[in-house]
Amino acid sequence: MPSNPFCRFFTLLSCVLPLLLLAPPLHARESEADKTEEPVKEDTYELLNLFGEVFQRVRTDYVEPVKDSDLIENAINGMLTSLDPHSSYLNEKSFKEMQVQTKGEFGGLGIEVTMDNGLVKVVSPIDDTPAFKAGVHAGDYITHIDDEPVMGMSLSEAVDKMRGLVDTTVKITIAREGESEPLDMMIKRAVIKIQSARSKLFDDVIYLRITSFNEQTFDKMKEEFDKQIKEMKDKKLRGIVLDLRNNPGGLLDQAIAVSDAFINQGEIVSTRGRDPEQTKRYSARPGDIANGAPIVVLINNGSASASEIVSGALQDHKRGIIMGTKSFGKGSVQTVIPLPEHGAMRLTTSRYFTPSGHSIQAKGIEPDIEVEQAKIEPVKKDRMRLEANLKNRLKNDEVDGDFLTKNRKGEEKKDGKAEKDTVTDRTVDGEITAAQDFQLSRALDLLRGLAVYKQGANATSE
Q: Quick check: is 305 catalytic?
């Protein structure tokens, strides 16, 4: 055996790596145990030796000293990130942060990001976080962090630079479609506490906003739904708006649970890996918490992964009307495989398919009714164009002496405040206002229209 410690180390590495290459993913090992493994080709050993030669040359001849651990970790990360944008190596620190994040709390700016053409692309900002409040949009490209170019960084390096001590500030430079100049934003870091589900009652329509799919999502959504059902008292539920806009996804089991809440039977999603025998199908159990009430699902280009599983399942089962704009198109499943004492690897192990068998990878979910987000501005009313204001008009006992009085009172208000609008006054946690959110307003109008149509149909049949 060679006397050089590194040579001994790499001889051992050369023996271990082929074993790792032969080993199936941890979640699949039990089912693969009886299969005959394909032998490693001879050129694989030659390539491993090539890796060893390059590694040793860098250690001894590079212009500055480099830690062995950094070289190895970067080599592993390079191998994984070259596969697809969602596979990566997580060192111990990153792995712990990811575990905290799936529980619903972590530190940073509050954005879900991916790598695209060497730049960091924002999949979506998370509601009520520093990035959301600063005006970061889904689809933005982060080109610089504290004036340092992102080009050349790995995704984990860029994320590490955006993270830091709470209440410290980071400068990010953004390239945005439609903007001729880059946008500089100074954002103060904070502890990000994700409220995965929120709700609001719009008369007899329940608005459910799901911001992410972490360990708390289904329980929190059910809690919010039950709260609003109690708030309705004797009213009949007219419908549900399920808002998945700018929801970057998360845990597969939570997406399945949320879908199952509204679907009585049938497949929700299937995942198919490299081995056909690893195909898994997830089906709904009997029961619909909404008892068949119509659902409008809002999506946009920031709706990804688990959000697309939910919207795809409801769409294929004709259980919900999908409204908004095309979703992000992330149709792959990542398995996080712990590497004892060395963090973990996030590896893309399968694709998921909607109940009708369609993959949304790079395609996204197409809305049933496409509605672009738009700014709503009220049109100034001309009161004198009403019949009720015309001189010598015909009388109507139901309104005379009442209509004009009400309008004059509205005009004579001296405090400068308008009458409260029945839509404008409705908000969710002070952020979402139906009168300012065109897509939400359209969803509410659709549900109200369906209710009116249903009432008319019932009256006709009777």
A: yes
pLDDT-based confidence at residue 415 (cuts at 50, 70, 90): very low
Q: Which of 305, 311, 327, 441 is catalytic?
A: 305
Please give the pLDDT value at position 140: 95
Q: Where are the domains of the chain?
A: 5-66, 105-193, 197-370, 383-461
Tell me what pLDDT residue 23 has. 37
Amino acid at 242: L
User: Is 450 a residue whose pLDDT tops 50?
Assistant: yes
Catalytic annotation, pick one of 316, 332, 437, 441: 316
Catalytic residue among 330, 350, 437, 441: 330
Q: How many CB atoms lie within 10 A of CB 192?
A: 21
Q: How far is the C-alpha of 223 from the C-alpha of 197, rounded, in Å?
A: 9
H or E stretch covering 370: strand 369-370
Q: Is 124 a catalytic residue?
A: no
**pTM > 0.85: yes or no:** no
CATH entry, 105-193, from 3.75.10.10, 3.40.50.80, 1.10.10.60, 2.30.42.10: 2.30.42.10
